[in-house]
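User: I'm curious whether this sequence folds into something compact or stays loose and floppy. Could you predict its structure so I can see for myself?
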Amino acid sequence: MVKTIATEEELTESTVIQEEEEEAEIESGSSSLANSQVQKLQKKIESRLKSLNNSQRVRPDYCIFRIPNKLYNENRALYLPQYVSIGPHHIGSVSEVDTDQKSRYLASFLNRARQTTPLNSFITLINWSEHKIQGCYEGSTRTYGLREIEAILVDAGFILELLLRYYYSKEWRDEKDVIFAKSGTIHDIKQDLMLLENQLPFFLLMDIYQLAFSGDPDFPSFVHLTCHFFSNYYNQNISIQDVLSKKDPQCAEYRSKLEKAKHFTDMVRTFQQPYSFKKEKNEDTQKPNENEHEKILEEGKMQGDHLYSAVLLLEAGVKFKVSSGKCLFDIEFDHGELKIPPLKVDNSTESFYANLMVWEQCYYPNDTFICDYILLMAYLIKSVKDVDLLVRRRIIVNQLGSPDAIVALFNRLSRHIRVEKNQYSILYMKLNEYNFDRCHGWMAILKLQYFSTPWKGVATIAATILLVLNLIQTICAILSL
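Assistant: Here's the prediction. I'll summarize afterward.
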């Protein structure tokens, strides 16, 4: 049987009236409270504290957070789904993919699973998981009734059928399916499905999928299915197929992170996460300065309140080069060269990183590698000249058109970053040390002003030769006197 709370509003109203009567009774008494009034006040406070404790037991692990109001008020569009709304936070919301379209996808999913699993099994699963599901959503207070359970089932069925149709390509798709028929629609849906508020818990989708197809060799694992769908967000030097293959033990930890994801936003963040698939170095072989750098990184010292912009670093002698690595966050500085992987900036970039940053600061406050990266790029990009420099070096692929738009984008993203540690502490330290060495600046000025182009170099050399010849001629004339 599905649980319903029919008298919740009546109970709440009764409780409020009772509390108001008690407060009035207390206030109507003399300034010194009688024993009976003290006991009533004591019971009232204890009741509230007990209620709070019980609510904490029901919601122990928030992982689908509400977007903070200050971010919401600045730009709601970054956090709201444009094509498909998912989850209790958006029950009743209007979206382009309506309930009828979702229900058609649910019907297809149930037809695939009906051979082994009837509909009531899925309803029972959601009903039994009610408290665990509710505990994932920040600000969730209502008890789930028939409407909420139906909405969750429809959303879950839609997502799982969508993943299956995407995985099996044209084999399982209807010719009249507008989602796959219209160009760009699936890309829009992917963007919506990684928004922080627009989520269903990962465990719930996995449980429903396994209930339907567990042990069936014709269906891939849920993690394979999900990774295939979001593979365009994957940024690692090793292929996702090798990661999911259990043959390589070095990928076990990374694979475990994917399997234990809280939701799609968490999985996409893991796709971005800097991860070494190589064996760790022996501590005894590390050099002393490496140990010092590791200590700085562990403590998160910034080595200065800021970092100079790209143009200023160039003038100080820093060479900017595009890295061949796929992971955006593998940034290296060595022998005066700052190597940065290429970043494509388009209309979806701001929403993508804005949602990941909110999720990161809420759930991983001590491991904010995305916020650290955005803060670093915001330091480097302070003006149009900085953007032009990074575009010329192929570090930024500008698909927004205007360099000013990129400057404004990183300024907005970095405005509300509040982190205590920074994974680029060593990089900050090295760049600032390099910048403070005047010899590097003199050499850079010489190269930029006199050898920035071949013609300038030839002209500089010719002028130097003429100067030397004139000097020799002058010396010879003096000696001949």
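Summary: The radius of gyration is 30 Å. The chain has 23 helices and five strands.
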